[in-house]
Amino acid sequence: MKKNIDILIIGFALFSMFFGAGNLIFPPYIGMTSGTGWLTSFLGFVIADIGIILLSINAVARAGSYQNVAGKAGKKFGLSLEFIMMLCLGPILVVPRTAATTFEMSIAPLFGSFNPIVFSIIFFAITFTLTVRPTKVMDIIGKFLTPILLIALVFLIGKGVISPIGDLKSLSHSDGLFATGLTQGYQTMDALGIGGVAALIMSSFFNKGYVDKKENASLTLKASLVAGCGLILVYGGLTYLGATVSTIYDQSISQTALLINITHSLLGSTGTLLLGIVVAFACLTTAIGLTSVTAKYFEDVSNKKIKYEHIVTLICIFSAVVSNLGVDKIISIAVPILTVLYPVSIVLVLMSYFKNILTKNSTFKGAAYATLIVSILTVLDTLGLNLNFVHSLPFAELGFNWVLPAIIGGILGTFLFKDKVETIDKKVS
């Protein structure tokens, strides 16, 4: 009984860590643009978002650490990849964005004259208070904060299901709906920093007395499945809400405006308040979880020479400053960096499932380097360098133009790089 409760609590906490404000606005827009075909696009979204999350957590749990996955491409390469990812996950991009999003979607609409600097100080003071004790982070999120978030979401979705705003729009063609959902799911980049997230889950189970590595890995997977099921249900409900207004709005409406209009149509001024609560708790739980993940990672990297509490303090102060740049500015900085890092991480995670076939680290190295090169060229193209050939690669329209180069790179790497049989992986006994 205790084990099931622990799985549920940590699963809830994991749900909240992945369910940020960005995840709140994607599904309604997908539903609105899909109409009666919303289930098709929703399936694509689930596969590319939740599917990658679950595969990544399972891969890290089985390997024992993210470095046992990424390190196959070279120890320095793996460490550098994770180091940069954790910087992005923490003080540089993702954590500051949670405060900026909360202010713009929750505070500004309700308290227009509220000072953003004062708000950022309050937001990160709360984050610091609830994060500074690492052994309690998952319990605080899973026992207290996630239930509030879920209750608000269930109320909003339930109202929309019982009393739909409008009718579902029948599409003259349904081609590309699955691909659209797949692309949107991939672009959430929710599996970024999965190594730190998986480590926090495994550490939380360890602190609860589950010290056996095999059992710990099993419980980690079960908790991630709880989180995955929660995400599927909430995403499904939000996608349906979007589909019910497909005859009212067109694709010119912004994702944020669509969500605001839906909540207002369902609940009037109460909807604005409810949306503010949902966004605030979604962002706060994400900020708490990711601050803890990042601080724990850098404490371990420094061999505990820098204390967890001190790192939490630095992250909160730095994030409070960066958050005042605003959501749009932070996103403009984040997208190019994440576009380079995310595909490399996915390639290494997927390849780890075939370790009995791909036995040489040189194969991983070739695939990782090829993916990195294509990702960098893709970003350079978006910045105006006109490298049009990156859009001609297979699956480029889905954002997966790195797939074929990764395969070719893996094959070439096997023969070009001198390597011994894979020895980095530490199996969970």
From TrEMBL:
Membrane-spanning intervals of the chain: 7-26, 38-57, 77-95, 107-132, 144-166, 186-207, 219-238, 273-298, 310-327, 333-354, 366-387, 399-417
Keywords recorded for this protein, A-Z: Amino-acid transport, Cell membrane, Membrane, Transmembrane, Transmembrane helix, Transport
Domain of life: Bacteria
Gene Ontology MF annotations: L-isoleucine transmembrane transporter activity; L-leucine transmembrane transporter activity; L-valine transmembrane transporter activity
Subcellular location: Cell membrane
Keyword S-adenosyl-L-methionine found: no
Gene Ontology biological process: isoleucine transport; L-leucine transport
Keyword Transmembrane on entry: yes
Entry GO terms, CC: plasma membrane
Membrane topology (UniProt): Multi-pass membrane protein
Protein family membership: Belongs to the branched chain amino acid transporter family.
PANTHER family per the UniProt record, alphabetical: BRANCHED-CHAIN AMINO ACID PERMEASE BRNQ, BRANCHED-CHAIN AMINO ACID TRANSPORT SYSTEM 2 CARRIER PROTEIN
Reported function: Component of the transport system for branched-chain amino acids.
Protein name: Branched-chain amino acid transport system carrier protein
Organism: Romboutsia lituseburensis DSM 797
The organism's taxonomic lineage, starting at the top: Bacteria, Bacillati, Bacillota, Clostridia, Peptostreptococcales
